[in-house]
């Protein structure tokens, strides 16, 4: 199957954007396509992981691609031995991260792995609560350990204690040791990440497949609603914003928190009254740990947390406060979701034989047990751990600026982790000898070159896929998390010319809505979203929940039924179509579309973006009535 009409471009056919020539030199060799691996690469199907890297990544930020896919590969292939899936191979192409599911097809090998998987996964499923509790303790310890890493400036002379305590070694050596600790502990955290995630998906997928076999006409949406209404940690930050908004209204502070002023002005105004100071006390109490929460997924050094950019949570609070003051109910419809869940479960259970019903009970119970981890692990890893990791990277950048090696703080991120290791040794070694760092001019020239390359890479969109599509996409991660299904791949191939007025994706969350779209390329664009607009983005993060207070619907380029965008939209009752592949490049802010969250379609209703203010979106009932 090499006909270009039935495949995507190969890596060696991908031309770099103008100004990005030579981009390959920025990344570790094994992340970049090469002549010696071309045969393997051209035989595979690769799709863009724009869920985690929505833009071309800086050289240092590619460490995430290494850690993530080392983790998923280790636990899929070597530890739990998933029967039909190995790991996900990974490459960086024109700055974007691409991954390729590797499947097991030999029946004898599948059977051999299945025996291992049943034994090993069965142990975790049988002891889930205890082991999950131990996992949380491990993660808390790992985050605490990251916090102890320090990069103090290089002094003119080592402290006297090196002599008086006969330490026998320079304190500067700790700088190199701590850098290695930072890298090693980041990789360890990503091992922990996949200790439970594969099993979480596996438990849900087993239940999903049982339902598909037992009820041939059941929809993916109906199956997902059988585990809805579960309380998970991922909703807690947004719940804190809702609570603070309600408190502001109760204390008569609505006008202050909705004034739209800069954070320092808003907080200053609140300090001027007893009610404001009472509210600020609650605000400060919520910040740790709930504002240690990235606006996206925390995979790049330049993302802000709510704590580092208070305008993000304050805008969410303002939106919620305005709704409460207008008499709206902003609570998540948990009770309704649970009632619907129980009703659906009972309805389908009644269709089964006694033995089938017993198996159904076990599987729906397992799915409900493992489901929280699918969302909660993000709080510990992508938010709390990544927040500390990037803080420490910035501290190291400050050290290198103070040492005169870098000119700007963000120079550090234009080196990959191996290059940074050599540069750091150069700085410490030169300091020890008493000479200027040998590589200062070399790296300043190279960083200047790479700045232009990264800018060019980030200005270009990522093609959704490369290579030869499989006859059937079966990898559970690809299907459930990324929304890369057989149908989606066919849509991507068939709609590459951009001539269609309908985008097809996955049915992320039920409902039909018409309205004007707001295309957001990153979390930095969130303040532009206006009430009643339909949010269009490469992917939405759980931390975008406050934006859902004003969005009428959601459309994403990537994502499947169990991606965070779909889960959050279902919990908040917002129509969503995920995994369209091209929404951010096909749609223009101001265009009117119809989002059908059940069918998984987005229909363009007009081609010319309107200039006037957003008009209210129309819901399912209004459209049909």
Automatic annotation (TrEMBL):
It holds the Pfam family PEP-utilizers. InterPro entries: PEP-util_enz_mobile_dom (IPR008279), PEP_Utilizing_Enz (IPR051549), Phosphohistidine_dom_sf (IPR036637). It comes from the Bacteria. GO terms for molecular function: transferase activity, transferring phosphorus-containing groups. Coiled coil: none annotated. Residues 530-600 form the PEP-utilising enzyme mobile domain. This is PEP-utilising enzyme mobile domain-containing protein.
